[in-house]
Amino acid sequence: MTQRNTTDAAAIDAPADAEAGMEEVVATLAAMDRRTVGAGERGSAAWLAGRLGELGAEAVTVSTFRGQSSWAPAHLGHVVTAMVVGLLPGRIGRALSLAAAVSYELEVSGRWQWIRRVLPSRQGASVSARLPTAGRPSRTLVLVAHHDAAHNGIVWHPRVVAVNRRWSARTGRSMPSHLVPLAAMLAAAVPAVPVRRAAAIVLGIAGLAMTQSMRSYTTPGANDNATGVAAVLETVRHLRAQPLTDTEVIVVFPGGEEAGNQGMRQWAADNRGLGGSGRTLVVNLDSLGSGGHLVLARREGLTSFAARRDVDTVTRIANEAGIELRAVDFPNVCDAAVARHAGMRAISVLSYADGWVEHLHQRSDTADAVGWNTVRAAVTLTEHIARAWDRGAFSNDA
To answer: CB under 8 Å, gap of 24 or more: what pairs does 238-244 form?
Structure first.
């Protein structure tokens, strides 16, 4: 389904109170059950398409993708496979266990998700649009914020993540969320029988936790990620008022992020031409309402690293704007990782309080719990990044 909307530029002046407008967006989205490939996700996409049209965006498009409603089935498939091949004797079993571990990392990082092709799937929805430029564009800026909401699960319980949170608060580093089952798969490739037995037990426990998460309720998703959507819409309002000169702006609200970056993978596949030239920058905004300070993900998951040049440039931009921004290792894989795998320059901006995203995948992730200071800071930072990119102020050095 495609919608094209052209309105007078005066539309960007409403609402006058920018924060009130963002609060409305967050409250509206948090009231929807936005689980991936569900009716709520499709309703959210239609609503956002309308908001983009009101802001004067062009080529507003609701696109579809095929996927699962949870990350758990694909992960569970790898866990079960690793348990089965781990029972095989000798080198064959160990080699297949190692292959399962490699495949699992490729799945989680978004590089290769082959197992999803054989899983039952349903239709999800993403939204994209373009902003008119003041001149002839020579660069592209992609503003991304996923609009689906996560499901709960014991794996996200505050007590389960407490050690990781304390380590993150102390060091700015955190263990990838899939590290335990990945380590167990690698342990299953060790010749020592006791180690392989212990690995099988760990994999069994991980599989039960994944199943429980898959069957859990959908969270309101106010911080994660209605705040990111609201910040992108507010940035669009600013860029419509003062358009960039040499940069085309593309807005993408992918679905399916919480189930394995499925909407972003489809968008990247449909826009392969944007990768490889170094002329496209993706700015991913996610979970901005923690209320502590903004963070920049230098690593997502285990193996998805942002380019050092882009981390340094965005850090400098934040410092010049007087915005507190800390570079961290983020435990989960965001949509920016998918863009990087497709050859685009990409960064993820998030927010922390005490080393963690507040209310991450919890029932308490409601609109009234949002910390608006970090949302406002993210809007300011994103506009500064956009104008610096437009000026050619980003380094082209690797």
So the answer is: 238/379, 238/383, 239/131, 239/383, 239/386, 240/9, 240/12, 240/55, 240/56, 240/57, 240/131, 241/9, 241/12, 241/13, 243/131, 243/132, 243/133, 243/134, 244/133, 244/134, 244/141, 244/386, 244/387, 244/390
Rounded distance, CA 67 to CA 70, Å? 9
Residue-level length of the chain: 398
% of the chain residues with pLDDT over 90: 90
For residue 397, give the 3-state DSSP assignment.
coil
Interval 126-145 mean pLDDT: 92
- Does residue 132 register a pLDDT over 90? no
Query: Smallest Cα–Cα separation from 304: which of 274, 261, 259, 271?
Result: 261
Structural Rg of the chain based on CA atoms: 21
Q: What does the alpha-carbon distance between residue 117 and residue 135 come to, in Å, rounded to a whole number? A: 42
Nearest to 160 by CA among 123, 213, 204, 211: 213
Residue 346 three-state SS: strand
| pLDDT, position 397 | 56
Q: Does 90 score more than 90 pLDDT?
A: no
From CA 238, how far away is CA 241, in angstroms rounded?
5
Distance between CA atoms of residues 103 and 109, nearest Å: 10
Of 28, 4, 1, nearest to 233 by C-alpha is 28
Cβ pair 362, 30 in contact under 8 A:
no
- Cα separation, 188 vs 181, in Å, equals 11
319-352: pLDDT as tens digits: 999 999 999 999 999 999 999 999 999 999 999 9
Q: Which residues pair with 251 in a beta bridge?
A: 129, 143
pLDDT tier, 2 (very low <50, low <70, confident <90, very high otherwise): very low
Average the pLDDT over each of 16-25, 189-198, 230-239, 372-381 and give the range with the smallest value.
16-25
Q: How far apart (Å, rounded) are the C-alpha atoms in residues 63 and 229?
A: 17
C-alpha to C-alpha distances, 160 to 85, 202, 334, nearest whole angstrom: 28, 15, 21
In this structure, the dihedral spanned by the alpha carbons of residues 12, 270, 221 and 317, taken in order and rounded to 10 degrees, is -60
**Are 2 and 61 a contacting pair, CB within 8 Å?**
yes
Q: Is 16's pLDDT higher than 70?
A: no
Residue among 363, 30, 53, 36 nearest 236 (CA): 53
Global pTM? 0.93
